[in-house]
Amino acid sequence: MDRDDYPPGVTPASAIVMFDGVCVLCNACAQYLIKYDTESVFTLASMQSPEGQAILQWFGLKTDDFDTLLLVEGRSYYERSEAFIRIFARLPFPWKLLRFLRFVPAAIRNWAYNRIALNRYALFGKFDSCVLPDANNRSRFLVGGNHTQKQRLGDKQT
Prior knowledge:
By secondary structure, this protein is of the alpha/beta class. The protein has one domain (3-152). It is 33% helix and 13% strand. The chain has four helices and six strands, in the order βαβαββααββ. It has a four-stranded mixed beta sheet, sandwiched between helices. Strands 5-6 form a two-stranded parallel sheet. A hairpin with a 2-residue loop joins strand 3 and strand 4 (76-79). The longest helix has 19 residues, at 106-124. The chain is globular.
């Protein structure tokens, strides 16, 4: 299969978690994945990064609206509660037990997901700019090109 058949920086074996880089909650989730994804199954990417923007464009998704978590696997993507469940299903026990949330109807799961997503800045805060991974975590991120991101992952703006 031709490399152009996949989003930029994505391979058939990729599992890329894309998140809102200015969202405090989203960055906490990225830190959580770095800690508990002990087998490095997932690569992370901020939706605002050049790599994230290229992937969003490839899928024909909005490049200025970051109200969902995305999981990109090869040429497919999953969003909202489906992305959440698929991510946790691939983490070690006990986190993988959350895959049983799949039995809850998607409409109910996504309603709950959307309540948090739409209020995440008010509930958890927002960084002034996207965060950069620190030296210890850089290998976990889809990185390339020039970044305009200024903060280090884990350093909350006051």
